[in-house]
Amino acid sequence: MRDATVRTWKWTRGQYERLVEAEVLGPEERVELLGGDLIVKEPQQSSHATSILLVQHALDAAFGPGWAVRSQMPLALDDDSEPEPDISVVAGGPRDYRDAHPSHPALVVEVALSRLAYDRDDKGSRYARAGIADYWIVNILEQRLEVYREPVPDEAAPAGWRYRRTFTLGPGERISPLAAPGAAVSVADLLP
């Protein structure tokens, strides 16, 4: 008997968007495209949902006019990734993205409860590969903010990229987004 090689189908962003347009995938499916794979999104526990709202509120205040703080909306990263991060901050206003999802966010934030390693490694590598200069993870379990900056190539990383500079902040500390250096966001304001 011959061993059959198991093959998987890798989706492109165009194919994924056609599935959504044809209503094969609806909002209740809770999936996102990452590296050609359809990934089931993390369930929304109360603390996760609360933190998303807190991050959105804090970043609205930090960035102000001329920026759109988007909650769980798609980003067109590349041909095989269209993630829906918990929060992304993009230049402009809501109507600027009527015809296409944004592709160059100034900041991406994931709120992690049960998938911390996935957000650090897999998503972090994809965001670094896309050139996102500022990536944050609100680590609910440890009540910390993890900050990732300076994307660099790294063959050992899942998508071939990683962040060179990483640091962690506690509830008593503040951070300035790279794209809003005059703002100071309290880490405590991001935590549930």
Strand adjacency order, main sheet: 3-4-5-6-7-8
Estimated share of beta-strand residues? 25-35%
Radius of gyration: 17 Å
Number of helices: 3
Which segments are poorly predicted (pLDDT under 50) over 5 or more consecutive residues?
none
State mean pLDDT (0 to 100 scale): 90
List the main descriptive attributes of the protein structure presented here.
single chain; 192 residues; alpha+beta; six-stranded mixed β-sheet; two-stranded antiparallel sheet; 10 strands; globular
Please describe the topology of this protein:
Blueprint: H1 13-21, E1 31-34, E2 37-40, H2 46-63, E3 67-71, E4 87-91, E5 107-112, H3 116-129, E6 134-139, E7 144-153, E8 161-169, E9 174-175, E10 185-186
Parallel strand pairs: 5-6
Antiparallel strand pairs: 1-2, 3-4, 4-5, 6-7, 7-8, 9-10
